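Blinded run. Sample ID left blank on purpose so nobody reads anything into the name before looking at the predicted structure. Input follows.
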Amino acid sequence: MKFSNSLIYWYLQNDRDLPWRRTKNPYFIWLSEIMLQQTRVAQGMAYYLKFTDNFPTVFDLAKADESTVLKMWQGLGYYSRARNLHYSAKQIANELNGEFPTTYKEIIKLKGIGDYTASAIASICFNEPTAVVDGNVYRVLSRYFGIKTPINSSAGIKEFKTLAQTLIDEAQPGNHNQAIMDFGALHCKPQNPLCDTCPFADSCVALEKKLIKELPVKEKKIKVRNRYFNFLVIKTDDNKTILTERTGKGIWQGLYQFPLIESHKSINKNELITSEEFIKTFPKETTISLFNKKEIVHKLSHQHLYTQFWVVETKKSSEAKIEWIDIKKYPVPVLIANFLEEYQPKK
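Blinded prediction complete.
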């Protein structure tokens, strides 16, 4: 209890004025927690405000089409979060009459919600004493208790969850959970933590044993896969282009892209236009030029995409049905969004 008391005392002096802190509405807490997974508060804030403005209730989000939701999510990445959010909003609106589940066991059944998010919502909105464990919590607990079990191992996940649960203040679990997350984000930071002013300095194992930089421990990362993308940016004489929706379970599901030729290595213009896929797509005369003179490397969690944008000018194409003037209405990966900001097609 002493740990929790010190933590909450720190929190009450240092808590951030964030819009989702001013409510106990589970819909808004849910939105904020999903958005802030893999995303810093500074980046997620604008998206949260935009979402709550456009979708003030779970019914509004449920009624929106997926393409609109993905367009508003554009730039946040990890788009499965948005698809799952939309799916669960429809489930809550249509099957639960708009009533958000009130217990951890029921909340975690919603698509896209795991232990961390269910614990956050249950504790903050419904005062259920279930501990959150995210990257910030792993860091605080591993340093304070000197735990070297890898945080991304099954043993580590179980150990840290059990420990976090023993520490929670059952009288105010929401404050406790928000306190430990904020403490990790603002004070016990990954780099240059504020040990000199830390309320736990006299009992922190990592500080005493000079293990701050070594903790928390992570098992070796999954090997990164290199992929080589060649986007064909079609422009017809009547200012039309081709965008197709990505399907399947890979990256960018539900987002739109230009026709794509994926190669085994970086290729030049001659290798591109003599490829079977290019010839099949453009049997007629075309003018082709490379837009980005230097390959763009777009880094995802387990993939590095080496990307080239090839501008393909052709008189007509029966598949080119999208007006250039409308292209920014479509949800696209940030890689393509950045290209569209730079590329100015000739009139």
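Unblinding after everyone has recorded impressions. The chain has 15 helices and nine strands.
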